[in-house]
Amino acid sequence: DGGITQSPKYLFRKEGQNVTLSCEQNLNHDAMYWYRQDPGQGLRLIYYSQIVNDFQKGDIAEGYSVSREKKESFPLTVTSAQKNPTAFYLCASSIVGSTGNSPLHFGNGTRLTVT
Amino acid sequence: AQSVTQLGSHVSVSEGALVLLRCNYSSSVPPYLFWYVQYPNQGLQLLLKYTSAATLVKGINGFEAEFKKSETSFHLTKPSAHMSDAAEYFCAVRYGAGSYQLTFGKGTKLSVIP
User: Do residues B61 and B112 make contact, with C-beta atoms less than 8 angstroms apart?
Assistant: First the structure.
């Protein structure tokens, strides 16, 4: 079955360390996204990529970095510059088309705790 | 800034009662509209989407939503709540066919009382 795999499900890090969250999809989607979820704040867009080797900042990109070397993969690095990294991180993908009603498909998320 | 508003961060209903979760968007041009559901520690699952083919959209798990342009609303309803409906629900909008981003509301947590 096609889908999006995020790993690991839970991640613990010490403050000051960079950490990379994995996101792989086998849906053959061109576009991929990273969202951050905090209680009561909904989902906020960190980065998105429409095509391999290209990506754009979302609303809260500071302290994060991404790469898109393969269509299937869109890893997110949370750097030590991110002031409040503890959160639930969601990866998503979608087709790229002429209509705007293509939904996002989500992975099951990674919960990052930094102490 | 264009946005989406979900009224009520928490809604409680009795099992068997009507579920109504509210969503309003903020554009004079109707956006593309979606409802998602999230169970604890999981990702988001698409419930339904508005495609402009019909103003009443039916989704999974017995949910439906009605697009009302005059009210800039896309409220989610279900005639009879089930215990398994307890989850968090998110309304999302995309403004313009050329935009890839979805803007999400802050979510409404639904509790179902036995």
Answer: no
